[in-house]
Design goal:
Elements lengths: L2 H15 L12 E6 L6 E9 L2 E10 L2 H14 L4 H16 L8 E9 L6 E9 L11 E6 L6 E5 L2 H7 L14 E2 L6
Antiparallel strand pairs: 1-2, 2-3, 4-5, 4-8, 5-6, 6-7
Helix pairs in contact: 1-2
Length: about 190
């Protein structure tokens, strides 16, 4: 086995044999349970939050080594984190394990080109930029913008009503074309 495979196996076995944060909190602020009917794994989680931060977490479950290690690793990863940090962590993890990828914060997508009434020249462009978690949850945390006919000057940005109206009709498509254009760190907050 290669070094990465050895490390993975070592981490899984360590968390399986010595699970972290196992048990149940006496006075949790929230809880959840789940099971996998295909293999029989079951888990329940109790969480104590302070504001939007996970102050403490415990889990109790019955399952295989991977299930136990996953619960242990997850509990360590989110303890002390805010909800927005946890959502970012989830998005990255989900993208990694599904291979589907996500649009990370700062991604810019050029959406459409609108022509003048005669249909002979570009009037303006529309686009969207992925913002921080919680910016616009109803529409996937996208900020909308329009550019002038040259495509260089932003003429409007934010929660543009006409963009939001149109995109709210297509909730199952994540509001984006699947044509990836650019990722750039967001420095304009």
């Amino acid at each position: 086995m290669n070094d990465l495979g050895d490390l993975y196996q070592e981490i899984i076995l360590d968390h399986y044999k010595k699970p972290r944060n196992a048990g149940r909190l006496e006075e949790p602020t929230c809880s959840a349970s789940g099971d996998n009917p295909l293999c029989g794994d079951k888990i329940s989680i109790t969480v104590k939050k302070s504001g939007d931060t996970v102050e403490d977490i415990r889990w109790k479950g019955a399952g295989c080594a991977i299930s136990t290690a996953s619960a242990s690793l997850m509990s360590e990863a989110i303890k002390g984190k805010s909800e927005s940090d946890i959502h970012r962590l989830f998005d990255k993890f989900h993208a990694m394990v599904t291979g589907k990828g996500i649009y990370p914060e700062g991604t810019v997508i050029l959406k459409q080109k609108f022509f003048d009434a005669a249909g002979t020249k570009t009037d303006f462009y529309t686009g969207m930029r992925k913002r921080e978690w919680g910016y616009n949850p109803e529409l996937g945390d996208w900020e909308f913008f329009t550019l002038d006919s040259g495509g260089l000057t932003v003429t409007a940005r934010g929660k543009i009503e006409s963009c939001m109206d149109c995109h709210s009709k297509y909730k199952t498509t994540d509001f984006v074309s699947r044509r990836y254009l650019a990722t750039k760190p967001d420095t304009e907050r």
